[in-house]
Design brief:
Distance between the termini: 18 Å
Strand content: 15-25%
Helix content: 40-55%
Number of strands: 10
Order of helices and strands: EHEHHEHEHHEEHEHEHEHE
Structural class: alpha/beta
Largest sheet: 10 strands, mixed
Radius of gyration: 21 Å
CATH topology of the largest domain: Rossmann fold
CATH superfamily of the largest domain: HUPs
CATH architecture of the largest domain: 3-Layer(aba) Sandwich
């Protein structure tokens, strides 16, 4: 399992943006990755105000960098630029050849409808690389990681990245299982339950085969098959497991305006019960 090579951290210099910076430095210490920090000043300001905003932001980032331990300052770069925030962040990620984008939670939180359209949501929507949204004060490395697993390539990539960024964590892999059988398909209750159990066992074998394909050698695999809707199962497991990171796959229809982050991913990015890693196929 390879390490993180290069992270891009997007910061808006608000108080909550300290958490992504702290998490990036923790991951840097763990993996030796390069770290690029970017702050984007939105265009349209009168020139002297734009220049002042850029200068103030650059000074703040340089001050933050100077306060790092000398070893921590190595391979950490800061950049202030002008542009549309989400597009500029993605351009920086491409330019720097980063393999992980780290963002903070926007001020609009709690409801998916408020979260949609924020910089964090748009970065998660369009980024080809995994996006880690940090909402909690880091306290060392991740300790309890919940992975929402299905048969999608995005979920497989999310699982791979969960092992990559949380090598010492207990990782619980959860598959929300919903029986395709209808209760009225048979009048025999015992027959119905037996058929349902056969289908559940078959799906569990398939999930385990997927996990085994990408599992690091010797890494314990904690796989749970839980019946219920994906949102309810994941929400309940975050609380029961006291997860500090949720990793899940997402998808997009295209790179155009019709692109979308999967509805389930949007829900958990908006709720912010813990840090969330989303990975696209």
């Amino acid at each position: 399992m390879s390490h993180i090579r290069h992270m891009l951290v997007a910061t808006d210099l608000t108080g909550r943006s300290l958490y992504p910076l702290m998490r990036a430095m923790q991951l840097k210490g763990q993996s030796g990755a390069l770290v690029s920090v970017v702050h984007v000043v939105e265009p349209g300001l009168i020139s002297n105000l734009e220049d002042r905003r850029c200068a103030e932001a650059s000074a703040a980032l340089q001050e933050w960098r100077a306060a790092l331990p000398e070893a921590g300052r190595q391979a950490v770069g800061v950049n202030v630029t002008v542009g549309e925030p989400f597009a500029t962040i993605l351009e920086e990620a491409t330019h720097c050849k980063t393999d992980l984008v780290v963002v903070g939670q926007p001020g609009k939180r709690g409801l998916k409808e408020l979260f949609i359209g924020t910089t964090a949501e748009r970065v998660a929507r369009f980024s080809d690389e995994p996006v880690l949204m940090v909402v909690q004060h880091p306290n060392g490395g991740y300790k309890r990681v919940l992975v929402a697993m299905d048969f999608s390539q995005g979920a497989k990539r999310a699982l791979e990245w969960a092992w990559r960024i949380a090598p010492d964590a207990v990782i619980r892999i959860v598959h929300a299982w919903q029986s395709p059988l209808m209760k009225f398909s048979t009048k025999d209750a015992a027959e119905f339950e037996a058929a349902k159990e056969r289908l559940r066992a078959q799906e569990e074998r398939q999930i385990r085969a997927v996990v085994e394909q990408i599992a690091p050698p010797g890494r314990p695999q904690h796989i749970e098959m839980i019946e219920g809707s994906p949102h309810a199962v994941i929400r309940d497991e975050i609380g029961a497991f006291n997860a500090d990171l949720l990793a899940m796959g997402t998808h997009s229809r295209s790179r155009l305006k019709t692109a979308m982050v999967g509805s389930l991913a949007q829900e958990f990015l908006a709720e912010g019960a813990c840090d969330v890693l989303v990975a696209k196929a």
